[in-house]
Structure formats: C-alpha cells, structure tokens
Design brief:
The chain has 12 helices and 8 strands. It is of the alpha/beta class and 279 residues long. The protein has 2 domains: 5-235, TIM Barrel, CATH 3.20.20.60; 240-277, no CATH class. Helix 2 (26-35) links the parallel strand 1 (18-22) and strand 2. The structure holds 3-methyl-2-oxobutanoic acid.
C-alpha cells in the first residue's frame, strides 16, 4: 500500500509508529521499499555519507534532484521526501517555492523537507500553498553547523527547550505535514509530540516521537567518519562488504575467480577453437 501524507497523519492518530530511512540511490531504495519502510528521505546528509564532504553545506539542488530521481525509481510504495539543500530556500520565499517545485517536478519527490523553525515559517506556508507537502526539521539542524559551532544536542536548557516548543508550533501552524526532531532531549521531544497534531519523526530524540529516522549508512555501519550517540547499528554491513571485497581480491589474484560457472564457452567445440587459434 502506498504511503501518503494522509497515511502518516492516520498513523499518528492510531499510535502506529512511522518508519523512515535515508536513501540516495535506486538499489538501496528498492530494498528498503520492499522491506516495508513507510518513508524514504533523500537527505542532504548525502553530502557526507555519499560524497565525502565534512558537512552538508556543499550539497546543491542538482545533487538533490539527481539522487531523488534515483530513489523515486526504486520506491514503489514509500513516501519519498526530498531535502532542500543549504541556500535553496533561505534567500527568498520565491526561490524556496521554485526549488521545492524542482524537487517534485524534476526529482519526483512526494514532499520536501527544510530546516528551521519560526525563521522559515513564510517558506513553509508558501510551499504548502503551492500544494507541496512540507516536512519541518528542528533541533540540531546540520545546515547551521557553523552557527551552532558543531553538531551538538539542542534544547538542553529550559530557555532552549521553550524555543524548540515554540518553533515546533510555528512549523505546524505554517502548514507542515510532519516535523523531524533531531538531537534533542527525549522528554522535550515527547512534550512536542503531545502538543502537535502533525507527526514528529525523531532522530536522537527518544522513544516518545511518532516515528524514527536514521541515516542508513549509520545503522548499517557503513560510515565510520563520525557516529553520533543516538545511532544503533542494526547490521554490520560494513564488515560484510569488507569480507566480500577481500574474498574477491584473493580469488582474482589466485585465479579461482572466474570459474567455469561464471564464464561462457565451456561447451565450445575444441576443433573450432583450434581453427580460430590458427587465424
Ligand atoms: O539529511 C538527513 O539525512 C536528515 C536526517 C538526519 C533527518 O536531515
């Protein structure tokens, strides 16, 4: 069954947890979709985990469209959310709407996500008015890494928690269909979840959210540069890949690969081959 924004609204109402994973390519998106994940986020985290930048700031609209298209081709049922990269929505409301439109029209996204609370309320309102569902994103917003002075937990003081709650309400009032809560104390995320009628999707925000999202390279131990405290490794695919690569190198070097099983021509006539050798 296809997941839509109506589906995730109903899931919040019925208390069914929403599952979201990041995806950046066709094959992985297809695997996740077949496994039954509800939403696929083409996160601008691709700058770090796919492209090797040290933060998400270098990611462009072209990068996002390219990867969103691939994910959309692999997603039969999951709701595909395309992330709006740094500087694609901050400069003006008009640019925000145009770029959100590109993610939908050129990338095939069903919805877009952008970072920030009250400061992006006009953008959320205008994109929503253009009939594009918007996911908000508050707490640790990686595009503000330089303003925050690093990737740090947010909302730990009472004042900061108040600001987060106010931002969550602004995002909802502006028309967002859901909001990602990143790296905030679990009790604050639970309060926000209780206060909002739209679903909250947590990442490092505890069990009280309506759903969870993880970067797949983190939960499969494929990205070792940096592992936040909130990441649980569900399978060590990094180790499985290392073993596979090493076996391939060994067998190729020893001549064990490719065997007859992986080649054509074992049944070719020897006399015909001999004639070919004479040419
Ligand atoms: O870009 C991303 O992957 C994200 C998630 C961390 C929520 O925004």
């Amino acid at each position: 069954m296809k997941t839509t924004v109506a589906t995730i609204r109903e899931m919040k109402a019925s208390g069914e947890k929403i599952t979201m994973l990041t995806a950046y390519d066709y094959s992985t998106a297809k695997l996740m979709d077949e496994t039954g994940v509800d939403c696929l986020l083409v996160g601008d985290s691709l700058g770090m985990v796919m492209l090797g930048y040290e933060d998400t700031l270098s990611v462009t609209m072209e990068d996002m469209i390219h990867h969103t298209k691939a994910v959309r081709r692999g997603a039969k049922d999951a709701l595909v959310v395309g992330d709006m990269p740094f500087m694609s929505y901050q400069v003006s409301v008009q640019e925000a709407v145009r770029n959100a439109g590109r993610l939908v029209q050129e990338g095939g996204a069903h919805a877009v996500k952008l970072e920030g609370g009250a400061v992006v309320r006009e953008q959320i309102r205008a994109i929503t008015d253009a009939s594009i569902p918007v996911f908000g994103h508050i707490g640790l917003t990686p595009q503000s890494v330089n303003a925050f002075g690093g990737f740090k937990v947010r909302g730990q003081s009472v004042g900061a928690a108040r600001q987060l709650i106010a931002d969550a309400k602004e995002v909802e009032a502006a028309g967002a269909v859901a909001v990602v809560l990143e790296a905030i104390p679990a009790p604050i995320a639970r309060i926000i979840t209780e206060k909002l009628s739209i679903p909250t999707i947590g990442i490092g925000a505890g069990a009280g959210c309506d759903g969870q999202v993880l970067v797949y390279q983190d939960m499969l131990a494929l990205y070792g540069d940096f592992r936040p405290k909130f990441v649980k490794v569900f399978a060590d695919a990094g180790e499985a890949m290392r073993r596979g690569f090493a076996a391939y190198i060994d067998e190729t070097r020893s001549g064990a690969f490719p065997s007859v099983e992986h080649s054509w021509g074992a049944d070719m006539d020897e006399s015909e081959l001999a004639a070919l050798r004479e040419l």
